[in-house]
Design goal:
- By secondary structure, the chain is an alpha/beta fold.
- It has a single domain, classed as Maf protein (Alpha-Beta Complex).
- The protein is 32% helix and 26% strand.
- Strands 1, 2, 3, 4, 5, 6 and 7 form a seven-stranded mixed β-sheet that branches.
- It is globular.
- It starts with a strand and ends with a helix.
Length: 192
Amino acid sequence: MIQLVFATNNAHKLEEVRAVVGDKFHIRTLAEIGCTDDIPETGDTFEANASQKSDYLFTRYGCDCFADDSGLEVVALGNEPGVYSARYSGTRDMEKNIALLLKRLGDRPDRTARFRTVISLRIGNEEHFFEGVVEGKIGYKCEGDGGFGYDPLFTPVGYQKTFAQMKSIEKNAISHRALAVAKLADFLKANY
């Protein structure tokens, strides 16, 4: 069984990834390898941040690993918050981040948005990237109490409910992270 370290301490991300990957691969956490470091992510693209995190783990801990960077891109805001999604308001307080997003978006009719995830996989000296995108729109207020982050605002194309109103199994089947992880899993199955 292939063992990979996922560069996250986010329980929601870990749950989503394990749901997609299943039991074919053993996904280890940062805590399991004793990593308590604040892994830098100073890039200005999702790809740069994911690569920076996987390289950090591979270099310092010598483990095969993968890291992701994800965010919300709102078209009317020039694709903000983008790589700054988790700290859009200058803090990691999601209520403040959501409030700022809604304030900046105002009552604009174009609410088009997308969630993007980019995964960087480091196995040996090779790096591979996988991307998942889900298109949708931003609501005028939060709806639902599931999920995390901007989920209460985001309704994917073809659905009448936000990610936060969906059951985990439903969201995990269509989420940006699930799509990227499915590509990662397909790659691993085909090559390892």
